[in-house]
Amino acid sequence: MRITIAAAGSRGDVAPYTGLGRELRRAGYDVVLAATDTFAPLAHDAGLEFRGLPADTRMRGGGSGGRELMRTAAAFVTELGQGFADVVDKGTDLLLLSTTTAPLGWHLTAAMGTPSLGVHLQPTAPTGDFPPVVTGSRSLGRLANRATGRFALRMADRVYEPAVAQLRRRLGLPPASPSETRRRQERANWPILYGFSTALVPRPSDWRPGLEVVGNWWPHHDPAERLPARLEDFLSAGPRPVLIGFGSMASGDGERLSEIAVRALRRAGLRGILQAGSAGLAADGDDVLTIGDVPHALLFPRLAAVVHHGGAGTSAAALRAGVPAVTVPVTADQPFWAGRLAALGAATAPIPFRSLTAERLAGALGQAVRKQAYSRAAARAACHLATENGARRTLEAVRRLTGG
């Protein structure tokens, strides 16, 4: 049986599916990861076949305004919709769709009769328990939370509308808006598995049947892989350092952020590791080291704390390692996850990206590293995450769906 996982976005939106794909492959399935070309090496390293999706997923700048976000999303989806059908051939027996690809993938299932399953990294379904992830972490009350959740879905559907119309014409399907298709999927209880921990987001009791929280899907890395020698030497040369990185965020802000990071570390009396990322963080010194990409699973347990942008994957990786965090959310769902970490007690109060200063960062780092309550909360969450196996739960769902 051939399974295609279609995912698009930044590295954090794609990497978790390499671990999921690897688990499905071990179970005997042929697995294809369809993503933008940037992530072909991730697929190949996990032993998965790769298909390229059209779109430029590079994040530009640190802007988080609503209009700017909508414009960026619309341009991305328009690109993504062009040629999307080309990556799913008639040999696909099951299509697994991420949050970003589901509004397009539904129409492929309609045209080709291929069964599909949602595999989402964010809690997209409206609920009274919390507001939609794109609006931050402040609850508006149960009725307003559900209403804004519905409104957020309608806004997403508007972004996808031109791409969906073009895709349906190409597939020979009659016109249907994204919102009409979404309502049909909801009425049919289309199954969605959510790949995050119930430690951060317990399953809301008002969700419809078919929506399940299964636990994280962890990015694949070779079990034989080791940290670079320079990094091992730095880790061994003194007290546990702090990692500071913004992933695929803050492109073009590297010089300013590097200066803030180094000043904050020295003000707090801590050693630090800067992860270059898209921002291009860099600094030299006996007490600071600059690195590129390394597996979170290898590095995070060796740290005193992690400063990050609040992405879903990095938030989960810090919890898995039992390490406290200082979050600096930039955009999209990042304020939501940052708020969840703080509510859990495993992170300090979020510092909005636009409000970041060396003084604020140093103060937060001092709290995270020296107040034991943060590390104790992170350790409790790590124990909870260890009981979850998102990839195995997904494999069980695939077997139920396919009868295999």
TrEMBL record:
Listed PANTHER family: STEROL 3-BETA-GLUCOSYLTRANSFERASE (PTHR48050), STEROL 3-BETA-GLUCOSYLTRANSFERASE UGT80A2 (PTHR48050:SF13)
Gene3D superfamilies named among the record's database cross-references: Glycogen Phosphorylase B
A Pfam family the protein falls into: Glyco_transf_28
Glycosyltransferase family 28 N-terminal domain segment(s): 3-63
Source taxon at top rank: Bacteria
Organism: Streptomyces edwardsiae
Keyword terms of this UniProt record: Transferase
InterPro entries: EryCIII-like_C, Glycosyltransferase_28, GlycoTrans_28_N, UDP_glucos_trans
The keyword Transferase is annotated on this UniProt entry: yes
Keyword NADP included in the entry's annotation: no
Domain Erythromycin biosynthesis protein CIII-like C-terminal: 285-385
Name of the protein in its database record: Glycosyltransferase
